[in-house]
Amino acid sequence: MSVVETLRAARWPILELHLSKEMTADELHAARKLADGLNLPVSIDAPEVLTRLCRSEDHQGYLAKMPPFPYDDAEDLLSRRRDRAFYLVLDAVQDPFNFGAIIRSADALGVDAIFVGAAQQADVTSLVVRSSAGAVNYTPLARVTDLVEWLGRLKQTGVSIVGSSPRAKRDVAQCDFRRSVALVLGNEAVGIRPEILSLCDERVLIRQKGHVGSLNAAVSAGILCYEVARQRNESRAASD
Asked: How far apart are CA 70 and CA 90, in angstroms?
């Protein structure tokens, strides 16, 4: 439940919280306890009130009014990088459901931070939050003015830039992800822009056997992130 995760994470301040009076006693108690810990007033309303406020019946008894999403500072995230850092860089991912699903995979598979550009990139909206299953509250996410400059900054710190491209010659499994790496994923329609692709130290693809020409952006992200996690888990197991 994305609203519950937002309450639990206490990262994104909630302006108003409405709960359905038809929720179970346990659900109401749990939500109110989290809200009390944040000194957040709670309004208990009839389900039709929540439906009117959010213009949808698909609220599951929770409704939160939110301010703009509090993006992290990119330089601050970089200053706290660990050995063998793992970043995602999104070049103009525009579908909010793709964006949210990518964040969900990033949280599940050990991504340290996601960097997005300020132009032509989906913002963090309620659709993104819901499709991320609340993971947006836990995954460090920074927005930068110029992705080209930011990739150059990452390269200066020793991070290898790996771009995902259907025209690449190397399979993703042939790339060594056991170093600090930033994995670049492109726009759903046109992929990674040429000026960004030219900055990539390596380009990889996911080999396919089906009849459809390409994978959904979020599915591709999940596969690529899993490969990074798989290699690092095997490396860790071998050193134990």
From this structure: 18
